[in-house]
Amino acid sequence: MPSAVRFGVNYTPSVGWFHHWLDFDLDSVRADLDSIAALGLDHIRVFPLWPYFQPNRTLIRPRAVEQLVALADAAAERGLDVNVDGLQGHLSSFDFLPAWTQTWHRRNIFTDPTVVEGEAEYLRTLAAALADRPNFIGMTIGNEVNQFAAGPHPDPDRITPEQAGAWLRRLLAACAQGAPGKLHLHASYDAAWYQDDQPFTPGHSARLGDMTAVHSWVFNGTAQRHGRTGTATEHHAAYLVELSKAWADDPRRPVWVQEVGAPAPLIHAEHAAAFTEATVAGVLDCTDVWGVTWWCSHDVARDLADFPELEYSLGLLTNDRQPKPAGRTLARIVKEQRPYAPAVRTTALVVDTTPGRSVCAPGGAVFEAFARLTADGARPTTVLASRADDKEHLAARGITAVVTPDQVTE
Question: What is the pLDDT of residue 338?
Fold first, then answer.
């Protein structure tokens, strides 16, 4: 068992949002990091904007890389470790793809050989620049890059699951080349678990990279269906942690809740603290959790235009760096954290995705059965139908009872 769960936050600069890379101000960054460290958190996830760092396929701007290193060093001075997402990619409803992949140079970002080699060199370069920093956790290939591979994206780069796997392996290898021995991973939004035609699969998330990342957002139909205080809503992050274990080959593979937040208006501001408390409590009742990283650190400034309304208020801190109720709640949880040793979950819900992954989505048979079992206090995990009779696999995970969704009654 790990001795503790890591608690951190996705760093959203208070001045200029991620456009701060265009007018990088280390003093402003330091002030932001001071306010994050004051919450007692131990790491941040950082987002270079890909077009700003690699505006041409063969130009990775040295000054931008130096600024990234300066940010990481400033974080170290405040006791904060750093994970870096390379390919941004997609953030808060905006796409950031370099011009050399678009319009007149339109090429598939997952399969075009020259594009993929450009991406690999970019990730290798960022990783190498930070490889000797003790506070560098490692690279995430990019933020929810799977959203570029299928609908509802308006202009997706269509690929097969086999092509998605090949792309992930190539870029994970580039990260490891740049920074051997660090933790390198990839991150998909929940379509990987829920969407039938999404080419990035649960197997990719649960088997490739040094740990599994899950991103938990209850605006995906969960809160709409179950309400703010519904079991499925408050345990959505825990559900994704346990769902991921069905596909993992390593029964002790670490899982990182890399994004989770309290989105208004489904979670109103006055309820954000309670949602935070319930969500973290659910996650801490799962085994093999590496960490919880809240989205996000600071609110988006209202003078920035065209964000979806919910994006402006997701911070643990206000735009002027003052802690909000959810931030104070998370700080208290960190301060009061007990030794992390949750009991093994001995009841496994069978996951059969033969009809499609949507059985795992809100409203699907697996999702709803898991919520009912959780509400009844059963503390379920999940197991693939193909492994439900594998005594060796079940024993390795401590599973003693297996149930199917249709056995779970109202």
Answer: 85
CATH for 320? 3.20.20.80
Largest separation between any pair of C-alpha atoms in the chain: 60
Which contacts of 177-181 are long-range, i.e. CB under 8 A and separated by 24 or more positions?
177/124, 177/127, 177/128, 178/123, 178/124, 178/125, 178/126, 178/127, 178/128, 178/129, 178/131, 178/139, 179/127, 179/128, 179/130, 179/131, 179/136, 179/138, 179/139, 180/131
Per-residue model confidence as pLDDT tens digits over 125-179: 999 999 999 999 999 999 999 999 999 999 999 999 999 999 999 999 999 999 9
1 pLDDT above the threshold of 90: no
Number of domains present in the structure of the chain: 2
Classify residue 17 as left (phi > 0), alpha (psi -120 to 50) or beta: left
Residues near 391 by beta carbon (within 8 Å), at least 6 away in sequence: none
Residue 289: closest CA among 320, 253, 314, 325:
253
Residue 403 φ then ψ, to 5°: -130, 150
pLDDT digits (tens, 9 = 90+) for 177-187: 999 999 999 99
| Shared-domain flag, residues 329 and 387 | no
Cβ atoms 260, 10 nearer than 8 A: no
Q: Quickly tell me which residue has 């799962």 as its tokens.
A: 286
Please give the residue range of the domain that contains residue 352.
Answer: 347-407
* Average pLDDT estimate for 328-333: 98
State the CB neighbour count (10 A cutoff) for residue 383: 24
Distance CA 275, CA 261 (A): 9
Per-residue pLDDT at 268 exceeds 70: yes
The contacts of residue 91 (CB under 8 Å, 6+ apart) are: 18, 47, 49, 143
62 & 151 share domain:
yes
Asked if 374 contacts 380 with a C-beta cutoff of 8 angstroms, the reply is yes
Residues 113 and 148 in one domain: yes
Tens digit of each residue's pLDDT (9 = 90 or more) over 216-244: 999 999 999 999 999 999 999 999 999 99
Sequential DSSP letters for 88-140:
--EETTEE---GGGSGGG---TTT-HHHHHHHHHHHHHHHHHHTT-TTEEEEE
- The closest alpha carbon to 170, from 213, 99, 131, 118, belongs to 118
* Residue 56 near residue 84, CB atoms below 8 Å: no
CB 136, CB 130: distance < 8 Å: yes
Residue 407 pLDDT greater than 60, yes or no: yes
Residue that is written with structure tokens 């678990």 in the block = 193
Strand-pair category, 90-91 with 94-95: antiparallel
Residue with the two structure tokens 């290939």: 141
